[in-house]
Automatic annotation (TrEMBL), chain A:
GO terms for cellular component: mitochondrial small ribosomal subunit. This is Mitochondrial ribosomal protein S18C. One of its GO terms (molecular function) is small ribosomal subunit rRNA binding. Keywords: Ribonucleoprotein, Ribosomal protein. Transmembrane segments: none annotated. Belongs to the bacterial ribosomal protein bS18 family. Signal peptide: none annotated. One of its GO terms (biological process) is mitochondrial translation. It holds the Pfam family Ribosomal_S18.
From TrEMBL, chain B:
Gene3D superfamilies: 3.30.70.60. InterPro entries: Ribosomal_bS6, Ribosomal_bS6_sf, Transl_elong_EF1B/ribsomal_bS6. SUPFAM superfamilies: Ribosomal protein S6. One of its GO terms (molecular function) is structural constituent of ribosome. GO terms for cellular component: mitochondrial small ribosomal subunit. GO terms for biological process: translation. Pfam families: Ribosomal_S6. Belongs to the bacterial ribosomal protein bS6 family. It comes from Acanthoscelides obtectus. Signal peptide: none annotated. It comes from the Eukaryota. This is Small ribosomal subunit protein bS6m.
Amino acid sequence: MSLILRRLTARFQTGNLIVRTCSTDKDAPEFDMENPFEKEKLQCVLCKHKIEADYKNVKLLSQFQSPYTGRIYGKHITGLCTKQQELVEKEIVKAQSAGLMGTYVKDPHFFEDPELFNADKPIRPHRF
Amino acid sequence: MIAYELMILYRLMPKPELRTALKRTSETIFQKGGIIRKLENLGTRDLPFKISVHGVVYNKADYFLFEFNAPPSSIASLFDEYIRDVDVVRRRLYKKTEPVGFECTLDNEMKPPPYRNDVLNLIEQAKSQQGKPKFEYNTNLDHYPFQK
């Protein structure tokens, strides 16, 4: 009986003694830090360079126009965000209405302009 | 008064005639109680498409840009007045737009559908059942009285 008691008391004593603290551990990782492996946020061309589409800037607007049909490319081709695409389309319609930009043809002066996107490789597939 | 932009195309004219035409357009703005802020010559250009006005077809035009402030009530009459001018090939009035601040959402749009905000909104809309009318018989009965 006395042996069992002695063992129990010993266990209680040791239970009180074992205290683990992490404060002294300098190598422990901090889990409240930001994810260091997070990828950089994607941005569209116009947002990245902070360009605003304007109906007088025909050189810029005609880059979003097909050289074959003069139609405006969709956002699955241009790679613009929804808002920018909406603004660009609005400005193109304004420019066409004001007689600055063609509706069926792209100005041949702008054929050599650098391509912002590849029309043959859309981000999402065509619906036709 | 609101800031407007007037994009106006004149037919090709010798300088003195063009000057009088410009004076005419600016004076109409002043008559309506407007103030001209800027007058810009955008040069003589080929039109992107032929324009026929006043019974003549034009392939070239002189481009001018007026920036002015005018009461909005006068805009309709201004617009009307310019087309009655024989020297004017085309005119368009636009409100001067302020740059709108917004964040690029391309990153979110490139995610697979169940993570896109627009798809999530659609799912939520479908869940809430809002705007989905449920047919009611309006008979104050808890059952349908006739044979179905």
